[in-house]
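Sharing a chain and its predicted structure for anyone who wants a worked example. Both blocks are below, sequence first, tokens second.
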Amino acid sequence: MGASVDARMWNGLVGVAKETYTASLGEGLVPRPLMMPLVRGELVGLIWVRPLKVGQEALAGIAELANIAAAVGASEVTFAWETHDVATACELPIIGPAPCLNRVLATPAGHVLHQFPYSEQLLSRSPEGWASVAPDWRPAPASQPDGELVPPS
């Protein structure tokens, strides 16, 4: 965790992300990357990345979230994304477990990567072929201080 995010706050932030991902996957959607900027330990926003096109435009859209964090003077930022979805949208290699909800808590001093792998249980399939799934959350590996993040290509 970070300098001012205590365990209760962190567990709440992780819970919100897991609930959002569970609800979205149940509706056949993949949630877009999510950023939560904090100022002195207080959550000041919940921002999803705008709709993206595959490729460099996706990389730019995700990077633009940093502008919001800077505008509010965030002292910490937590970011959530799904491994396979972001790798596909950004045309990057898949690093780490997939499917997996990733959370990073970043401060000026560094970052900590938290991963929440899951398997997908098929709930239904639409006539158009879209799948509605429920995540079966797997045990989370240990947090990774300065864990590997795929750099933009």
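Comments welcome. The helical segments are 7-26, 56-63, 65-71, 83-90.
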